[in-house]
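FAQ

Q: What does a record look like?
A: Structure on top, sequence underneath. For example:
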C-alpha cells in the first residue's frame, strides 16, 4: 500500500491574513466547537452571520479551507467542520473492510484483512468504523476517486443527501442518497452516469455513512 493522506488536509506554516468577515466566521466555528463539542451546521452558521442564503456559508467555508484553517468532511455531512489548529497527531488503526464500487450496483465486497491509520479527530468515539477502498469514478465530481479510501460508519439509516454505501440485497454502491416520497435515488457525481432508483424503499439496504476520505498519494 502506498503512502496515504487525508484528502483536503492542507499544510500551512503560519496564520494567514483574514478579512473581518472571515475572522468573525472562524470565531463562530471556534466557539461552537469549544462550547458544544461539535461543529455547527451550515444553517446555524448562516443564521449566526445574519445571511439569507446557505451558499454564503459554503463560500466562506471554502475560503477558510483554502487558507489552511479548517478541514471539512464529505458534502452532505451536517457537522463536518474541524479546526486545523486542533488537529491531533494521534492515529487510530481501523480495518480495511474491502472494496466498494462507485458505479453500478455490484455484489458484496471482500474483507481485506489490513489496517489503515486515520487521524483520531476523524473517527467518532464508540462508532463502528472502517475503511472501504473505492473502485470506479461515479463520485469523481464530489472529490472521491478510484483508489481512495472512504471512512464508513456502519449504520442502517441516513439523512437526505449524505454519502452512503447502500443498495438492494447484496448489491451495493457508493452514492449520495436522496429520499423521495415514493422512492429513493442513489445519485452519482459523474455527468456520464444516471441515478439508481429504488422504487420500494423497504428494499433499500443502507450499510453505512461516509465520514471522511483518505487518499493514496501518487
Amino acid at each position: 500500500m502506498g503512502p496515504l493522506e487525508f484528502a483536503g488536509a492542507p499544510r500551512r506554516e503560519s496564520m494567514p491574513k483574514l478579512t473581518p468577515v472571515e475572522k468573525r466566521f472562524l470565531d463562530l466555528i471556534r466557539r461552537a466547537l469549544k462550547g458544544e463539542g461539535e461543529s455547527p451546521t451550515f444553517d446555524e452558521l448562516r443564521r449566526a452571520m445574519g445571511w439569507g442564503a446557505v451558499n454564503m456559508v459554503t463560500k466562506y467555508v471554502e475560503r477558510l479551507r483554502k487558507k489552511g484553517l479548517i478541514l471539512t468532511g464529505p458534502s452532505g455531512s451536517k457537522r463536518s467542520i474541524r479546526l486545523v489548529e486542533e488537529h491531533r497527531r494521534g492515529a487510530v488503526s481501523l480495518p480495511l473492510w474491502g472494496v466498494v464500487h462507485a458505479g453500478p450496483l455490484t455484489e458484496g465486497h471482500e474483507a481485506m484483512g489490513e489496517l489503515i491509520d486515520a487521524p483520531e479527530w476523524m473517527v467518532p468515539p464508540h462508532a463502528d468504523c472502517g475503511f472501504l477502498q473505492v473502485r470506479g469514478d461515479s463520485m469523481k465530481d464530489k472529490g472521491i476517486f478510484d483508489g481512495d479510501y472512504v471512512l464508513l460508519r456502519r449504520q442502517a439509516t441516513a439523512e437526505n443527501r449524505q454519502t452512503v454505501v447502500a443498495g438492494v440485497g447484496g448489491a451495493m454502491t457508493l452514492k449520495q442518497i436522496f429520499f423521495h416520497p415514493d422512492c429513493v435515488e442513489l445519485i452519482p457525481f459523474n455527468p456520464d452516469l444516471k441515478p439508481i432508483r429504488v422504487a420500494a424503499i423497504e428494499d433499500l439496504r443502507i450499510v453505512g455513512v461516509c465520514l471522511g476520505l483518505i487518499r493514496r498519494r501518487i
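Q: Is there anything notable about this one?
A: The chain has two domains: 4-86, 91-216.
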